[in-house]
Write a structure and sequence with these properties.
The chain has 2 helices and 21 strands. A hairpin with a 7-residue loop joins strand 3 and strand 4. The chain has a 4-stranded antiparallel beta sheet, with no helix packed on it. A 4-stranded antiparallel beta sheet has the order 5-6-7-8. It is globular, with a radius of gyration of 19 Å. The protein has a single domain, classed as Glycosyl hydrolase domain, family 43 (Tachylectin-2, Chain A), CATH 2.115.10.20. It is mainly beta and 337 residues long. It starts with 14 loop residues before the first strand and ends in a 5-residue tail after the last strand.
Length: 337
């Protein structure tokens, strides 16, 4: 990793910014799909009630990115994803662009400047209604065809590891047009966060779970992971994840790397931090970020990763008093021959 860019990435003064998935368009520009919600409400827990998906554009991969449009707007509680959209991830599959996201619905009033606070019960309702959807378009500028139902819904078998919510989809489009998705789920509120895997034979075919269990069982180690970023390098499957406790990588909320030949059986680099909350910046300073999450890579036309993106906050987002802004940061990668 080269030094992070102080003036890069995506920020908005009046909004919390999160996620950040970048792709180069046919126009040569770089298109970032990100989440935002107004600072009239708290970052946490209001991400699960107020987030919407936007598109921002830059002439350079490092940015800065500038808002172009809101892609997924609130449309009412009668839709499964009608009250919130979050976790956008953009991929190209043949001639189609696929935008995966997390959506939810709830029946209590939409939080705003006049009524910003939600109760714990309201947070749980919105959180446990989360499921994974997908938009499809011939262009990054839309129009987008929106799935009427979740493409990876909560498991209908009560008590399964992902029976209460599905979120944080990370798709991997293979050369034959099939799509694998690693995603997050929980069995109940407060449960360990777990990752699972689903497959569709084509973008317009249903996703089916590849395992009855989650991919990793870390309970006995006081370990859990989330925020997967999943790709195939032409030889092996690769996975970046956020290590929640540091039991695996050695750094709490640091990055964990794993690789696999089949996307089912994974080899981990234990006690090796794939990315750290301690960041070197291009102005010579070094900071320890309060949060550094939702890792994402940008690849060039040859499939080589060139830039690392992450959602970040200078202080932990659960510290509501001190949190001033959140944004998507970018770290250029040294491309090795």
């Amino acid at each position: 990793m080269l030094p992070a860019l102080r003036g890069g990435g995506f920020r908005m003064d009046d909004y919390w910014i999160w996620d950040g998935s970048v792709i180069q368009g046919e126009d040569g520009r770089y298109h970032m799909f990100a989440s935002r919600w107004s600072k009239d409400v708290c970052f946490y827990p209001n991400f699960v009630t107020n987030s919407e998906v936007v598109r921002a554009v830059s002439d350079k991969p490092e940015g800065p990115y500038h808002l172009v449009e809101t892609v997924i707007k609130r449309r009412g509680p009668d839709f499964w994803d009608g009250m919130m959209s979050h976790n956008p991830v953009i991929r190209k599959c043949g001639k189609k662009y696929l935008l995966f996201y997390t959506g939810t619905t709830y029946r209590f009033p939409y939080p705003d400047a006049t009524n910003p606070v939600i109760s714990e019960a309201q947070h749980v309702e919105a959180r446990l209604n989360q499921q994974i959807g997908m938009l499809v378009s011939d262009s990054l500028e839309g129009p987008w065809e929106r799935s009427g139902q979740p493409v990876i819904a909560r498991n209908r078998d009560e008590g399964r590891w992902d029976s209460k919510m599905t979120t944080n989809a990370s798709p991997c489009v293979l050369s034959d047009g099939s799509i694998l998705v690693i995603y997050k789920g929980v069995a109940h509120h407060g449960d360990f966060m777990r990752l699972g895997i689903a497959r569709a034979s084509a973008w317009n075919r249903p996703f089916e779970r590849m395992l009855d269990r989650s991919l990793f069982e870390f309970d006995q180690m006081n370990a859990s992971v989330e925020d997967p970023f999943f790709w195939h390098d032409g030889t092996r499957f690769n996975l970046l994840m956020k290590d929640m406790t540091g039991a695996l990588s050695g750094e709490e909320h640091g990055g964990l790397f794993a690789s696999s030949s089949d996307a089912i059986h994974w080899e981990f680099r234990r006690n090796e931090v794939a990315y750290s909350r301690t960041v070197r910046w291009d102005d010579g300073t070094v900071t320890k970020q309060g949060n550094l999450e939702r890792p994402s890579l940008l690849f060039d036309r040859n499939g080589t990763p060139t830039h690392f993106f992450a959602a970040t906050a200078d202080v932990n987002f659960r510290n509501r008093k001190d949190l001033k802004s959140t944004y998507v940061m970018v770290i250029p990668l040294q491309v090795r021959p």
